Amino acid sequence: MGYNFLGDLEKIPLVGTSVVVKADYLAGHQTIVRSALKALVEGHGYLLNPANKAAVMEIMTKKLGITDSMAANDGYEDYVRRTDRHAFVVVDGLKNIQRFMKLRNPKIGEISMDRLVDMSILRELEKSGFLEQALAGKSASR
């Protein structure tokens, strides 16, 4: 019979994947952070590129131990359909997570999410054309 549908979280801004570093680490290790961000964005673009579906499905079923190919396909299609195709963090998503967390620790509500986010490297990658190319699933030169 399956599960009862309780609601769709698709329209609620949340953050799923982020790179989190301290400000002093970012200041002293921009090359490392930039390289890590580029690799993550390229991987994301590869996964979302329809031409790579067979390879992604093979990796996904093997690494996650999925034996039901229909379930794997449904999961893949759902991920591709629901995933944002940009690399910038949605601050409203962080604020939603903060809202949930401050129920357990009210001090979390005092933190300014806008001050925590530094998108300078992503803006640099966007300006260079890297983001558009990588998110289109094209391997970018390093």
Descriptive overview:
With 142 residues, the chain is mostly helical. It has one domain. Helix 3 packs across helix 4. The mean pLDDT is 89.
Care to give the gist of this entry?
The protein has 142 residues and is mainly α. Helices cover 56% and strands 0% of the residues. It contains 8 helices and no strands.
Which residues sit in consecutive blocks of at least 5 with pLDDT less than 50? none
Number of helices: 8
Helix proportion range: 55-70%
Task: Please summarize the sheet with the most strands.
Answer: none
Q: What is the secondary structure topology, with strand pairs?
A:
Elements: H1 23-28, H2 30-48, H3 53-64, H4 69-82, H5 91-101, H6 113-116, H7 120-127, H8 130-135
Please give a handful of descriptors for the protein shown.
mainly alpha; single chain; 8 helices; globular; 56% helix; 142 residues
